[in-house]
Design a protein that fits this description.
Layout (H helix, E strand, L loop, with lengths): L1 H16 L5 E6 H5 L4 E7 L4 E10 L8 E13 L7 E16 L11 E19 L4 E22 L2 E26 L1
Length: about 190
């Protein structure tokens, strides 16, 4: 965890210290609606390219028996046909996550009778559109499709106790990115 924090810190310092570049700080409203704290930074890599790194972190449990604890990092490289931060874009993204889910119904065959403690990683392609609001503000709509690999310990929940069922591995093809983000530009 410390290594990832150091890598993210170094990336942010190098991005913010670059001169003559645009930088946007953003939050994904879809995650916000799910009370999942998140933050993203997007930076210019030229007239038609940007780099984006976003993440979310949920350190708390819903109740003592229910948990959606996780953290996620999702970098993306974007191509803008017209110009950066304006209009349509296509992207190539990856992600890594670590999670502990208990007593919650989720897609991909995860149900509230079990607990899951594991990691996931993958990547995909994305498409999006950025809507200009003002020189400092915009709204971004994005969706991505791709592959994910999940490896987790699975437990059955019986009378408040967890019984270990084993190590499971799952391949996933489907939605790997979704967002309606509000961006603020630092110029």
């Amino acid at each position: 965890m410390k290594k990832i924090g150091l890598i993210v810190f170094c990336c942010l310092v190098s991005i913010l210290s670059a001169s003559a570049q645009y930088v946007a700080v953003k939050t994904n409203g879809l995650y916000d609606a799910l009370t999942c704290p998140n933050l993203g930074v997007e930076f210019s890599l030229g007239r038609h390219f940007t780099g984006d790194i976003s993440g979310n972190y949920v350190p708390f449990e819903i109740t003592k028996k229910e948990s959606l604890k996780h953290w996620l990092v999702q970098p993306e490289f974007r191509y803008w046909p017209v110009e950066r931060f304006n209009g349509h874009f296509i992207g190539l993204h990856g992600y890594y996550m670590d999670y502990v889910f208990k007593k919650v119904d989720l897609p991909f065959g995860m149900n509230k009778d079990h607990a899951y403690d594991g990691t996931g990683y993958g990547g995909g392609i994305s498409y999006g559109y950025q809507l200009y609001l003002s020189p400092r503000w915009s709204i971004e709509f994005t969706a991505g499709f791709g592959y994910g690999y999940f490896e987790y310990d699975k437990f059955v929940m019986k009378e408040g106790q967890q019984e270990y069922l084993g190590l499971f591995k799952t391949d996933y093809w489907g939605i790997t990115k979704a967002g309606i983000s509000i961006s603020y530009f630092i110029k």
